[in-house]
Write a structure and sequence with these properties.
Layout: H1 6-15, H2 20-32, H3 36-59, H4 72-82, H5 89-106, H6 122-134, H7 138-158, H8 163-166, H9 168-186, H10 191-203, H11 221-240, H12 249-262, H13 279-290
Amino acid sequence: MNFRSLKELAERSSARQTSIGRWMLEEQSQESGQPQGTEFAKMADYYRIMKEAVVRGLTEDTTSRSGLTGRDAQRVMSFRGRTEPALGDAASLAMSYALAVSEVNASMGRIIATPTAGSCGIIPGVFVSCQERFGWEDDMLVYGLFAAGAIGYVIANNSFISGAEGGCQAEIGSAIGMAAGALVDLRGGTPDQAVHAVGLALKNSLGLICDPVGGLVEIPCIVRNDFGAVTALAAADMALAGVQSVIPSDEVVQVMLEVGSAMPEALRETAGGGLAQTPTGRRIMNELRTK
């Protein structure tokens, strides 16, 4: 790819006077040697799978094999039908959709890793809820996925996207940044605003540990996805309003690398610390071993 930093990404998109998503499609086509139409169709298939996962999470039994999680997205949707959520309609819908996709993942359903399976709910939660809210066609959201991919490419090549390497900040944090920046791009913000959204989102995720109870991508992974969707919406709105990340976004990515490298092994997906080693976490692990 012809860029290595978020700053370069914004500069090159701006120079072409196009959105990050459309510019990334051109780059991807050149990189792969495939026509743009072929690359677009592949990404469109990914978005279709995301939408299918949202529906499945809201209509089918998503109880995981461990029995620890499932159907919480349906509970949130039922709550939304009974009363006005404190979050408001838009944010609570994104939250419930993110939860739905994450529960599909935990119940061995089909999802798209964005950037990992553990953070698979954030981008669909943001994208599908905003599509319904703003009346966007699927094609528009496909360009949004290219924008998210461009942001994820920079993060992956300069820091982490794996919880085992850099803690949950690397998975959930990256997904929040990808969703926030892409949403700015979708709503007509400038490439600079999109990059500021990434920095704003990542700063709010620094230091987040990876502490899966029982070693499963369920607790607390699933609820972190729905909180992450809400954070992405907030970061996008702030950037579109003109709020900037005082610390440049590329420097925030570098700090995520430094924090993740300094994080103890027990807090990097080993289930050796954090919530996984609480009395309840240890009890759950012991019960799973005897099943």
